[in-house]
Amino acid sequence: MRGHVRERGRGHWYAVIDIRDPVTGKRRRKWQSLPDAKGRRQAEIACSRLITEMTRGTYLEPSHITVASFLTHWIDHQRNHVSPRTVEYYGEKSRNILPIIGNVILAKLSPAVVAQAYSVALKRHSPASTLMMHRVLSAALRQAVKWQLLSANPCDAVTAPRVERRQARVLDADGAAALIEAARPRAMFMPVLLGVTCGLRRGELAALTWHHVDLDAARLQIVVSAEQTSQGVRIKPPKSGRSRVVAMPALVVEELRRYRLKQAEELLKIGVRQSNETYVCLQPNYEPWAPWNLSSTFAKLIKTTGLPRPSARSAALTCDAFAGRKRTPQNRAGTAWPRQHRDHHEPVQSRHAGDAR
Predict the structure, then answer these.
(1) Above 90 in pLDDT, residue 153?
(2) Cβ 235 vs Cβ 340: under 8 Å
(3) Which CATH code fits 67-157?
(4) 25's torsion region: left (phi>0), alpha (psi -120 to 50) or beta?
């Protein structure tokens, strides 16, 4: 594929590209306006970029691409830049956008059209969901501007949907103590204890191994986290992207010592030896917890206590580890851990899958 640039009128540059018609096989010339080119040199660079995109199959025709097809292309592009769970999140919010403005030609997307779309979305979804839709759409359209598919981001001229702030529901010290005691006879005891007293997130609890617990120094290290997607559970860096050290109260250290001994005895009964790579928090079937399993099991536990369920994203004594998103039909799948993260208790699955503690 070859091409050159041509100026039509003063300062109006075009890329003239020789392409072959996929149906007839005949050669033809495609003229593409280069509105941002300031001079021949910039026009030649833009022309070379167009030829590369066409050769790779990543070129998007501005006059034909719809919002739906652009969002699909943008999400696919994001797979190389964000986590799998974030890609799924973009897809979930895009599904709210597509029924409203999916058929609109991207080049004709105006602030008025976007504002009207938000009005329609507010009738179908909550203000918080509509705000998330706005953020995803705005991020996608910023990329469209970078790709020169739009001259400006229409979302910049639209007021974001307003979400009323609600006072967070938190557990006080007495409530936290009551919750810990209610969890004591259950498999959720250790996740609840660590979540309440140390402020660990669900993914951090699910991925915590004995290798990162120092009982003598009364501290634990958070170096990895478990992320759950529709494809399963994967290990990733913590949410902040940095590891951290958490000091443990004496009560937690004492409980962990007893718990580790009990866990080792139970694993030996089924022929599995506890090691530093063993997960601290195991389910009754000796599988590590998945983040959404923690949330759903915690919801059942707190319902039996009569305590108010804490709000999501609240701090330490509010059980931030479990008070997050609900399990929707789209995210109920993918609770399995990859085999490489289950090898230390893999024999349990073939012989004692139904055992419970």
Answers:
(1) yes
(2) no
(3) 1.10.150.130
(4) left
> Residue 213: which pLDDT band, with cuts at 50, 70 and 90?
very high
Domain 173-351: CATH class, spelled out: mainly alpha
- Is 333 exposed, middle or buried (CB count within 10 Å of its CB: 0-12, 13-18, 19+)? middle
| pTM for the whole structure | 0.59
The per-residue pLDDT for range 76-92, each reduced to its tens digit, is 888 888 878 788 888 88
Residue 45 has pLDDT above 90, yes or no: no
Question: 328: exposed, middle or buried (C-beta count within 10 Å: 0-12, 13-18, 19+)?
Answer: exposed
- 227 phi-psi bin (left φ>0, alpha ψ -120 to 50, beta other): beta
Ranges of each domain in the chain: 2-56, 67-157, 173-351
Distance CA 284, CA 355 (A): 7
145 in Cβ contact with 58 (< 8 Å): no
As a whole number of angstroms, the longest Cα–Cα distance in the chain is 85
Residues 6+ away with beta carbon under 8 Å from 174: none
User: Which structure tokens are listed for 190?
Assistant: 């250790």
228-240 in b/e burial notation, b at 16+ Cβ within 10 A?
bbeebbbbbebee
Q: Provide the pLDDT for residue 138.
A: 94
pLDDT at 352 over 60: no
Q: What number is the average pLDDT over the span 25-32?
A: 70
Task: Report in angstroms the alpha-carbon separations of 262 from 266, 270, 274.
Answer: 6, 13, 11
Provide the pairing of β-strand 213-214 with 219-222: antiparallel
Q: What is the pLDDT of residue 200?
A: 85
